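Lab meeting prep.
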Amino acid sequence: MLIKIYPENPNQKEIDKVVKVLQDGGLVIYPTDTVYAIGCDALNVRAVEKICKMKGINPAKSNLSIICYDLSNISEYAKVDTSTFKLMKKNLPGAFTFLLNTTSSLPKIYKDKKTVGIRIPDNNIIREIVRILGNPVLTTSVKNDDEIIEYSTDPELIEERYEKIVDLIVDGGYGGLEASTIVDCTDGEPHVTRQGKGELIW
């Protein structure tokens, strides 16, 4: 199912539909400030496992990333020191994934790797979904890392490809082609490990 939501003024009724799917353990494709992404309620382990299987992700070896609404409850999910928090505050919302060490309140599937990526995209649709859900959303890009092709930017083409695999696709307009910039903050000295769309302000 494809539903249209406008980023400037997300319709509450449509947002609620997406949230209901996530609450029921469903998988959703949605826009971010970078590329379209597939996600689920990050605290629903079965849904997280479904996405990992679908994308061929081994959670013990790959970093899982979650989208939060803002920085206010970030310490629930990741360990953040003062200087890292200041850096994140300067750059978020924005096209960044900050890699941090996990805390005990995330399910075990995240703790195998001991790190988690934190995203707060500059996109009203997904942030509003997360705010209403009350939990972070696990996020992984629709595109494959080795190829970014047209289907991953056009919601109707995404629907053709994924309608039998996910429960809902949010059409928030054309998506971007460039992934987020990854900033590794796990060893106390932040450094960029992948330069993407975001230009980090130090």
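Slide two material, second protein:
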Amino acid sequence: MELQYYMLCLATTILVAISATYGVKFLKKRNYLLGFEWLIVTFSATNALVFFLLDIKGAYSISYFCDAFSRGFGIPLVAVAGLMAVTHAFRPTVLADLAIFALAAAGGVVLVACDAVAPVKPYFYVATWSAFSIYFGYFAKRLLSAGQGGQALGIVVALVAAQAIAVIYDFFPIPGDHEHMMFYTLAELTWAYLCAQTYYAYCALERAEQPTLADYERQQFA
């Protein structure tokens, strides 16, 4: 049990470091949707680590809300909108960014605070994440078409791993993992990989599609 506990704390620390690093990198690229969503993951993981180490209930509550936000809306809605900057030349205004986050936050509040949705939450999480996986598959296809086969493979690995994590907890629990330590360790390492791989794939497609995006934007504002 102690080894599992230490592995969980290490995995959480890795998620904090990686999501923060690539969240800041996305902010430097002026992609506020992906940047702040990755930092929300950082905030969630930081509070989870505080709970694991100090057993502070308030930290658990914060992490629980942020996790519901990211699983239900942050990744499927906010991150997809952020990725559309390189797949569809979608560059929303700051006001639009705020509106997207506000909509996602409202959805997160409903998921956490509304008892009526509790019976359907597991299915909702899987459905929204599956929708994200479909888009992620399209993202991989765009990378492959742009000659970025290595990055496309990296995205497919992230897609499969993250989709597996999305269905394991509620529908296929790991045998013997009664306190879910093994699951959370795998989940946090998977999310850390997703955060990093998404950044590098985003940059690769951005470089490959630069002329196309520029032409598209000129047509839009002509």
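Talking points for slide two:
The chain has a mean pLDDT of 93.
The chain has one domain: 2-221.
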